[in-house]
Amino acid sequence: MNQKLFVLLIVLSAFYSESLAQEKSPVKFGKVSPEDFKTNVYSIDSSASAVIIADIGSTEMEGNRKGGFSLIFKNYRRVHILKKSGYDIGDVSIPIYTVGDAEEELVSLKAVTYNLENGKVVETKLETKSAVFKDKINKSIVVKKFTFPNIKEGSIIEYQYTVNSDFIRYLRAWSFQGGYPRLWSEYNVSMPEFYYYVTLSQGYQPFFIKDQKNRTGNFTYTDDTGAGAATREPFTASVTDYRWVMKNVTALKEESFTSTIDNHIAKIEFQLAEVRQPFVPRNIMGSWTQACEELLKDEDFGYSLSRDNPWLNDVMDAATRSATNDLQKARNIYAYIRDNMTCTNHNSIYLQQPLRNIIKSRNGNEAEINLLLVAMLRKARLNAEPVMLSTRSNGYTYSMYPLIGRFNYVIARLNMDGRTYYLDASEPRMGFGRLGYECYNGHARIINSEATPLDLTTDSLMERSVTSVFISNNAKGNMEGVMQRNPGYYESYRIRNTIKDKGKEQLFSDIKKGFTGEAEISNTIVDSLDKYEEPLAIKYNFEIKQDKEDILYLNPMFSEGYKENPFKSAERFYPVEMPYTVDETYLMQLQVPDGYATDELPKQIVVKLNEDDDGMFEYRISESAGTINLRSRLRLKRSYFQPDEYEMLREFFNLVVKKHNEQIVFKKKK
Question: What CATH number was assigned to the domain covering residues 288-456?
Fold first, then answer.
């Protein structure tokens, strides 16, 4: 998917067995002894505030009395809490799927806190009737929540529960990894041959056990939903029992340059693809072509796009009045919607209201605003189509399977005069033909009759910036200079929003704070503030008061250099995902302060990130006739780096930080 080296295994059929397949979990519910409290530091992570001793789940299928089958999901977990900062693991939320009035059923919940007091294990049981609460997350998910009682440093907590579900499509996923280390994580699933699920596995942690066994299962098909007597149809079918186990799984916590941690935790997910005999065979998942055809007919998505929509006539006149060609029409329509509509939610793929209402209320989610954009572009007889994608923070999608639930965002695509423009009118101050970098997350899908796939990669984005500084000495013996910054597009977009929210004065106040010593800023200019397609140009004059010490120290990068390494962790277990590639150039020309001579200049350096020239850093500095010239350039041609490249990247930025913090030394002339 999306041509990344991300380790994502799509498993369509049988798993193979590995050794030690009979090894079992080391703990059982209720079997807690004083010996279990002795360990207060675990070798898997000596700094962990809590450690999951065992996390075990299973799903089986049983015939129900509605003419179908139910999923029986069971979960057992034991945790050793070591520090107060680990108390949050005692707050448990169990997701419950719901459709209309139908809801999965939570049954047989037990939860106990164990503490060691005077050498004896003391139990505190959860009062499940009074201490479990229900919270609605959205129209499809509610959670049953509870907090373990009497938690202390050193407590052991454990729970087990069962969820009965008639939603056969939603076989529960399993995460082997999370924010705390896990000594044992196991999932068992029994799949009968009449339900075929696609299995999606991801992560970087190896399986300790990966096993499957085939057997014959006895099932009963019962239907008592009709007016007559209940019918019972016993039958046998082949069943495959899968078992997945991971041991000593390290915690995975979000670090800098991560799209979403959910892309990288070790987990298994399932999607029902087919129903097979003895039921009437049918394809559940379908194809991308089928999915797009359904979306185009859906009243909550594409139905209005194929209509003439005469209610748009008045707004079309207002939007396109001054346009003299098709491109200008497109630009005007885009600007009209962007500047007149307010986005209420940037996380949707469906309409919550008719497009006509959006015109009246001037409010809508991002799907509504961008589907309205497509409708208006088509009304102007332009070739526009909706595009469905998943943002970086939402996670990856799969090009092979039409799993619509993984998508969370809609934009527009416009083809005109041999060029393609991607448009998002839900973002104020976003330029025509520009998308926020959150949209660049690999596989996306154009919703048309061909179900055209699309790859929006961060490697296609280049954030190019240039900063120039010219510094001389003034009559007061101070340094004065002119700074001009041309930030990249996304930095410009951020600055535009800052100025909109806080004013231009706040921008330059923040710039002033970046100077060391006493500095004054004047003649402040921000060019192209309202030209949303273009980067900004920021200009200002500054004066730095000079102390007349015998030795002067000056960082020639001023406030523009890297102060610290963005990659702080000593090691990383998942990829680095930058939002774009970069090319940052800094140029400085400096007159040596009056009455001083240069005693020491930083050493020059040019270094490549690797042999493939995926990155480069140059730092060239020299002095001639009392003028010092510096050129610093940092270039990265890739935005995505594998975990085994992390040390290389971290050391590269260590060098950048070191050079950017070196100083010029001046000595007073005698």
Answer: 3.10.620.30
Confidence of residue 230 (pLDDT cuts 50, 70, 90): low
Q: Collapsing DSSP states into helix, strand and coil, what is residue 42?
A: strand
Q: What pLDDT band is residue 478 in, cutting at 50, 70 and 90?
A: confident
- Of the pLDDT bands very low, low, confident and very high (cuts 50, 70, 90), residue 39 is very high
pLDDT for the residue numbered 208: 96
CA dihedral 287, 291, 297, 303 (to 10 degrees): -140
Q: Given a cut of 70, is residue 6 above it in pLDDT?
A: no
* CA–CA distance, 655 with 670 (Å, rounded to integer): 36
Confirm if 75 and 56 have CB atoms less than 8 A apart.
yes
Contact (Cβ atoms closer than 8 angstroms) between residue 616 and residue 609: yes
What would the DSSP string read from start to end of 513-578? HTSSSSEEEEEEEEETTT-TTS--EEEEEEEEPPP--SEEEE-TTTTSS--S-S--SS--SS-EE-
Residue 315 sits at the vertex; the CA angle it makes with 309 and 317, to the nearest 5 degrees, is 105
Cα separation, 359 vs 362, in Å, equals: 5
CATH 3.30.420.150, applies to 8-18+41-283: no
What are the pLDDT digits (tens) for 539-590? 999 998 877 889 999 999 988 999 999 999 998 989 999 999 999 999 999 9
16 vs 371, more confident: 371
Whole-number Å distance between alpha carbons of 422 and 413: 5
Handedness of CA 190, 191, 193, 194 (dihedral sign): positive
User: Where in the chain do CATH 2.60.40.3140 domains reside?
Assistant: 8-18+41-283
- At residue 12, the 3 state secondary structure works out as coil
Q: How far apart are the first and last CA of the chain?
A: 67
The H or E element spanning position 618 is: strand 615-624
Ranges for all domains in the chain classified under CATH 3.10.620.30? 288-456
| The token pair that represents 408 in the structure block | 């969370």
266 vs 252: CA distance, rounded Å:
9
Is the pLDDT reported for residue 4 higher than 70?
A: no
Main-chain phi, psi angles of 438, to 5 degrees: -60, -25
Q: Per-residue pLDDT tens for 352-401?
A: 999 999 999 999 999 999 999 999 999 999 999 999 999 999 999 999 99
- Alpha-carbon distance of 422 to 434, in angstroms, equals 6
Helix (H) or strand (E) holding 648: helix 646-660
324 exposed, middle or buried (CB, 10 Å; 0-12, 13-18, 19+)? exposed
CB hemisphere CA count around 561 (13 angstroms): 28
Rounded Cα gap, residues 212 and 499, in angstroms = 59
Answer whether 126's CB lies under 8 Å from 146's CB.
Answer: yes
> CATH code for 462-668?
2.60.120.1130
Q: How many CA atoms lie within 13 A of 454 on its CB side?
A: 24
Q: How far is CA 641 from CA 42, 57, 150, 569, in A?
A: 30, 33, 44, 15
Q: Single out the residue of 234, 233, 244, 265 nearest to residue 190, CA to CA.
A: 244
Domain with CATH 2.60.120.1130 in the chain: 462-668
* C-alpha–C-alpha distance, residues 267 and 269, integer Å: 7
- How far apart CA 338 and CA 427 sit, in angstroms, is 7
Please enumerate in sequence order all residues whose Cβ is within 8 A of that of 24, keeping only pairs 6 or more positions apart, or say none: none
Average pLDDT for residues 440-462, to the nearest whole number? 97
